[in-house]
């Protein structure tokens, strides 16, 4: 990495990244990845879950900055940690979410049957979305496609992906980042943007 980038403030790196200097995001990632990942892992205590939450955290960071929604308040790392924390909370909500049927005389059990229909519809939509994403993944450049396939379908962590593809972890993360940017663009061009 360019040593000059290491001397820039977070805000300077963010502005340059937004203006197309992608190495500036690598500098931000390099600066904070161990802190963010360490926090996530210390809470969830599961490497695979931590990897997923870490990746999702930086997807949100990239998307927010790239779309111009990030507000420059000199609190970049606090903002990133808050995103990570919220994703951890979402994860625990998902794994603890179980349908409960109230034991009340005024409760109509027929209302709970509607949940099943909603789930069938969601399953169909999820399957269709998955098929659309597979089509889009095939349209990615080979290096990006390989990282996406190894990560999402092979469930490899970024360390293993880096070893398998013969690149550094930062390069693997960078390829994933560009793949996500390209997938969003392709989805929009193919009118399936709302499904991603």
Entry summary:
The protein contains nine helices and no strands.
Main attributes of the structure:
Arc Repressor Mutant, subunit A, mainly alpha, Rna Polymerase Sigma Factor, Chain: A, 9 helices, 196 residues, single chain, 2 domains, globular, 75% helix
What can you tell me about this protein's structure?
With 196 residues, this protein is mostly helical. The protein has two domains: 1-98, Rna Polymerase Sigma Factor, Chain: A (Orthogonal Bundle), CATH 1.10.1740.10; 112-196, Orthogonal Bundle (Arc Repressor Mutant, subunit A), CATH 1.10.10. It contains nine helices and no strands. It has helices at residues 3-6, 10-18, 23-44, 47-66, 76-96, 109-138, 142-153, 158-165, 169-189. The chain starts with a helix and ends in a 7-residue tail after the last helix.
Mean pLDDT: 80
Any low-confidence stretches, pLDDT <50, length ≥5?
112-117
Q: What share of the residues does DSSP label as strand, in percent? A: under 5%
How would you classify the helix and strand content by structural class? Answer: mainly alpha
Tally of helical segments:
9
The domain count comes to: 2
Largest sheet: none
Helix proportion of residues, in percent?
over 70%
Using the CA coordinates, give the radius of gyration.
20 Å
CATH secondary-structure class of the largest domain:
Mainly Alpha
How many beta-strand elements?
0
Provide the CATH superfamily of the largest domain: RNA polymerase sigma factor, region 2, helix turn helix motif
Second-tier CATH architecture of the largest domain: Orthogonal Bundle
Q: How far apart lie the N and C ends?
A: 32 Å
Order of helices and strands: HHHHHHHHH
**Shape type:** globular
CATH level 3 topology of the largest domain: Rna Polymerase Sigma Factor, Chain: A
């Amino acid at each position: 990495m360019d040593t000059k980038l290491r001397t820039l403030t977070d805000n300077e790196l963010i502005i340059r990244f937004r203006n197309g200097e992608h190495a500036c995001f690598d500098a931000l990632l390099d600066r904070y990845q161990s802190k963010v990942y360490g926090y996530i892992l210390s809470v969830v205590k599961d490497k695979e879950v931590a990897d997923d939450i870490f990746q999702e955290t930086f997807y949100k960071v990239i998307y927010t900055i790239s779309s111009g929604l990030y507000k420059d308040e000199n609190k970049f790392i606090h903002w990133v940690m808050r995103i990570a924390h919220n994703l951890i909370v979402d994860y625990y909500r998902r794994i603890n979410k179980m349908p409960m049927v109230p034991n009340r005389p005024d409760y109509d059990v027929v209302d709970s049957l509607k949940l099943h229909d909603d789930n069938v519809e969601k399953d169909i939509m999820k399957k269709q979305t998955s098929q659309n994403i597979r089509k889009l993944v095939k349209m990615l450049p080979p290096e990006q496609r390989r990282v996406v396939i190894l990560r999402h379908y092979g469930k490899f962590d970024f360390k293993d992906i880096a070893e398998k593809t013969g690149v550094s972890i930062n390069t693997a993360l960078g390829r994933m980042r560009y793949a996500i940017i390209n997938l969003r663009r392709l989805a929009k061009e193919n009118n399936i943007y709302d499904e991603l």
